What does this fold into?
Amino acid sequence: ICKPNTDGISSFENLLANIILRVFVWVVAFIICFGNIFVICLRSCFASENQHHTMAIKSLCCADCLMGVYLLFIGAFDIKYCGEYNRHAQIWMESLSCQLIGSLAMLSTEVSVMMLTYMTLEKYLCIVFPFQHYRAGRKQTLCSLTFIWLLGFIIAVIPFWDKQTFGNFYGRNGVCFPLHSDQTEKPGARSYSTAIFLGEGRGHRSVYGVCLRPG
It folds into this structure.
């Protein structure tokens, strides 16, 4: 029987191509969810001297926890389509469920990167300029965290606004996340994906640069 090659993620029979992916998606999902919920509970139960930093950590944990929820959904749909994924692949990738969990993963990724960048820059300013008034107050912290979540939400939902430009942005593969660009992708969607991943790369580099800067 002639069968198409796997793309490394999905196969002819299953949404997740092999047993390793199917097992680890559940393991990683539970670790992410349990770990972040544990940190949120721990930070809520014990008083901290820097309540503003605690707020930022809780917010980061919430963003990371969304990725665990996304993985749980992927694992659940993998079980649902087990053995007959080829019959449902097109319907699945064009479904509202796929679009929503894809946007959830995008929201989690973008908010996590922006939150880490914000927290690193805040600590950097406090360490390098200890006698200046760079420490954010409660109002400034709330405004910053709200802005980060709002910006992450906007980034995640923009592909829904114009189907002519973005096409099926989150339905490029079985896991509903734009992992890479291809020649069949619309130019607008390709440019958007490139801008997002370049922005993430710059965010990670800025965090590492601040952390590794001497002195």
In short: The chain has one domain: 19-212. The helical segments are 19-45, 51-80, 85-93, 96-128, 138-161, 163-166, 187-212. The chain has seven helices and no strands.
